[in-house]
């Protein structure tokens, strides 16, 4: 096989642990294949913006790419499962949910000409707000960053004003007052210097979304069998490493935010109850849309608890 070259776009900064893990994956692939496969990682939405990456991989414009699964909830409810609040709130639960939903996810992606290489979670999602918040009522009318259908739905349920903002645009949106509150991980809060604009972080641990690194099925099939095996093995190692780093980084990011003036707060009992009520509505809505196939995934996940 002649040397193959892949482009792998991601929407996150080079300093983010997801990107660092992917860069390590690319180096390991180079080593494991003896230089037969070279992967160029394009960080921070420099090649394609976040919403464009899946289509780019599907069409072969990029051979591989990283997506936030929940961003594609409008395509299929299986993708939305990652953003359903309070369904899986610990890393162990998130892993079980991924295992339960992976066969259905793989089937959907295969029908679009793609394969999963590996998955890595974000930190549990918390609430950043310019205002102090003791209940959902305090969020009514607030300008709310929505980056996925799930976060837009939360805005609707709590009476906030949703504004579509991807991570690469987040700092500018905060600086100009376009948004005043949002839910995301500690890592995104740190990467985007949220602490310069917003001072309250409520550690709601509402859900743990995951990124998936995809490969175009034809690009993968074009590799010889030894190279395919090497890529598969290195991808499995990247997944194990990524999950471990994600869990380790969760506490570290909260510490870094606090050092830079962010107040790390436990939600009040009322705020927690309000947010869980939102989660209950969204879980019920998801099951209605996902039907018997969705119920089977949730049943398989809960059976493993």
Features of the shown structure:
three-stranded antiparallel beta sheet; 2 domains; 305 residues; D-Maltodextrin-Binding Protein, domain 2; alpha/beta
- Rg on CA atoms, Å: 19 Å
Quantity of strands, as a count: 11
The dominant shape is globular
Return residue spans where pLDDT drops below 50 for at least 5 consecutive residues.
none
Distance between the termini: 46 Å
Name of the CATH class of the largest domain: Alpha Beta
Number of domains: 2
Helix content range: 40-55%
SSE arrangement, N to C: EHEHEHHEEEHEHEHEEHHEH
Pfam families: DctP
Keywords: Signal
InterPro entries: DctP_fam, TRAP_DctP_sf
Protein name: C4-dicarboxylate ABC transporter substrate-binding protein
What's the helix and strand layout?
Elements: E1 4-9, H1 17-32, E2 37-42, H2 53-59, E3 64-68, H3 77-80, H4 91-111, E4 114-121, E5 126-129, E6 143-146, H5 149-158, E7 161-164, H6 170-175, E8 181-184, H7 186-191, E9 200-202, E10 210-216, H8 217-221, H9 225-259, E11 263-265, H10 269-303
Parallel strand pairs: 1-2, 6-7, 9-11
Antiparallel strand pairs: 3-10, 4-10, 5-8, 5-9
Helix pairs in contact: 1-9, 4-10
Protein name: C4-dicarboxylate ABC transporter substrate-binding protein
InterPro entries: DctP_fam, TRAP_DctP_sf
Pfam families: DctP (PF03480)
Overview of this protein structure:
This protein has two domains: 4-72 and 87-121 and 209-250, D-Maltodextrin-Binding Protein, domain 2; 126-206 and 257-303, Bacterial extracellular solute-binding protein, family 7 (D-Maltodextrin-Binding Protein, domain 2), CATH 3.40.190. α4 crosses α10 (269-303). The model has no long low-confidence stretch (mean pLDDT 95). The protein is built from ten helices and eleven strands. 48% of the residues lie in helices and 18% in strands. The protein is globular and about 60 Å long. This is C4-dicarboxylate ABC transporter substrate-binding protein. It comes from Xylophilus rhododendri.
